[in-house]
Automatic annotation (TrEMBL):
Domain called Inhibitor I9: residue spans: 47-115
One Pfam family recorded for the sequence: Inhibitor_I9
Alphabetized Gene3D superfamilies for the sequence: Peptidase S8 propeptide/proteinase inhibitor I9
Lineage: Eukaryota, Fungi, Dikarya, Ascomycota, Pezizomycotina
Transmembrane residue ranges: none
Name of the protein described by the UniProt record: Inhibitor I9 domain-containing protein
Any GO BP annotation: vacuole fusion, non-autophagic
Species this chain originates from: Emericellopsis atlantica
Length: 115
């Protein structure tokens, strides 16, 4: 079993990892947590499907995508059949997207099953 170092109540760091990040041990523990897990915060954000209105021009769809990025969203897949895209987005920021004049619908992304 590898040796570990207890960095905080919420985090046990393998000693092999500490050798690569020793310079961060001088900082408060919450900074260590932020550095080690900063990439997972985006991954854990909920994913949504954004559908633009049918009469939205390509420029208006681009405007919606820009608004999404400005609000902290990360666009995943852009659909060709519908005027829309998938986005990972913080729950609090979804309301601003739903009220955008060129957006028809914003719904949580998920797996659909049939019986």
């Amino acid at each position: 079993m590898p040796r570990t170092f207890k960095a905080s109540r919420c985090l046990t760091v393998p000693t092999s990892l500490l050798h690569h990040h020793q310079q961060h041990l001088i900082q408060p523990t919450h900074h260590i947590c932020q550095r080690l897990f900063s990439k997972t915060t985006t991954v854990n954000m909920p994913s949504y499907i954004v559908t633009c209105k049918e009469d939205a021009s390509p420029e208006q769809v681009e405007e919606v995508k820009k608004h999404t990025k400005d609000q902290g969203g990360k666009i995943g897949h852009e659909y060709s059949i519908i005027k829309g895209f998938s986005v990972t987005f913080d729950n609090d920021a979804v309301t601003t997207l739903e009220s955008h004049p060129h957006v028809k619908n914003v719904e949580a992304d998920g797996v659909m099953k049939t019986q």
